[in-house]
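Standup notes
- HV: blocked on the assembly model, inputs below
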Amino acid sequence: MANLFTMRVLVVEDEKKTAAFIRKALQAEDFAVDVCHNGEDAWNAARLTSFDAIVLDIMLPGRDGLSLLRQLRDRKNLTPILLLSARGEVNERVEGLNSGADDYLAKPFVIAELVARVRCLGRRGSDTRAAVLQVADLTLDTISREARRANAPIELTSREYRLLEFLMRSAGRICGRMAILEQVWDYDFDPGSNIVDVNVMRLREKIDGQFETKLLHTVRGLGYVLKGPP
Amino acid sequence: MTIRTRLTLWFALVLVLSLTAMGVLSYYELVVEPRDRAQAEAPGEEVGEALAWCGVPALVFGLGGGWWLMRRALAPIAALSNAAERINEHHLAERLPRTGSGDELDRLTQVFNEMTERLEQSFARIHEFTLHASHELKTPLTVIHGELETALHNQSLSVEQRSRLESELDEIQRLARIVNGLNLLTKAGAGQIPLSREPVRLDELVREACSDAQSLGRPYQIRVNLAGCEQVLVTGDRHRLRQLLLNLADNAVKYNSPQGTVTLELGRVAQAAQITIANTGPGIAPELVPRIFDPFFRGDASHSLAADGCGLGLSIARWIANAHGGLIEITSVPGRMTTARVRLPIAAAESG
């Protein structure tokens, strides 16, 4: 069952249903998941057990998420923390990151995105940034900024390049619109435009247009995923 | 003492004073003076002279007194209306100063203050309600979204079931966008959204909006031109200004007609930076233009290319422009051209 490489995640969320589906989704990805419904329990759990990542809701009964976060950091506990918040304010995000959180996700979120981010947090530190990314016969040289499919060069605008780089670095995982907006457009809120979708469509024309095997797929309602044939 | 009593007393005083003045003067004119003088004048002449000598000062005194009296009586009303003018949606906390004399005006001030207080309370309640509602809605939205998403992982779903779940997911996301927008607007209305104030190169943002408009317009063969783009520095919140421009660029494409055009321009007009985004398309009927910034207002959405927004974009755009000390206006010639203009103050460092 649990092997050496299983990531152990603590989920701190007072809303039981939300906690339940986060647990289910993380378990489906083979994470070991502990759940706490309030700040006190979470504080005790985090002191006693070493987790690979903590998913922490800001609004909690008793000790709230931000003060819990500060206490952990004061105690030199450097477990990667993903903050969740229903308020979704820009300043809250900044405050959270300044207090030592590693990532922030506003509710309502796409679970696939939460899972991807938690996985990212667990990998932090061991992340090697390859210079040439490859998915099937699509390659992206991040130094010369050159994309090729089946060895034929593809012309990309700078936005399309960043989009492709992000999708290739997260190859095989669903990238939600919000994650793309953050990483590629540097937006930390939803601008209420389908700018992501039109750019993904354009990019798809360029990389998949004339090829039999499609690499860039839409996961309706959730986002996009770049992956090679199974 | 009521104003009526006070005015009556004051009026009586002025009357008594004028009459006394008239009496004293006529006594002097009719009794004292003839005694001193050697020869008597004709009685008719004497009466005329007496009237001129006594009546005119009494009249002047009476008029002056009356004017002073009215002014004194009306001054608090003028002060009241001035203060009432200052009170609006954003200055509801202001109260008019009471004189404490217990007269009609003091009572009026009191009633007015109580009314403002009730208004302030109901505004605060509406604001709190919207804020709580938009916040409370997020938890069930998170749960529904999560459960739909989990359900979609079930590989045994039929195509029909899957497509229904996906369509529900789309609607949940749309709802989430509306809730987020409402939350933003409510907080913005209460001044609870802090904006950073950093130097921002507006021309860079306009070029970016131009390329965003190109991407957005490509599926509909909409041509996007940049008519001019002067280098302009403004002070403000880079993220919010980008949101403002993307919003307008998005609208310029959405409410266009296929193969139409969008023209962006950035220039300077009277110490201000002016961004113009003009688009072809059906436009907005003149009678609807004043309402276009209202939340959830959609003129005739049936003409638009992709009316899937949350209906709050322009309200948010107006808040961003105003919060930067700027203005936004939209004019439209139906069937020809719709133009959005944003004016923002140029950064102090640049305008010197």
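- HV (later): unblocked. Residues 8-123 of chain A form a domain with the Rossmann fold fold (CATH 3.40.50.2300). Chain A touches chain B at residues 15, 17-18, 21-22, 24-25, 28, 86-91, 106-112, 157, 159, 187-195, 198-199, 201-202, 220-222 (CB under 8 Å).
- Next: hand off to the docking folks.
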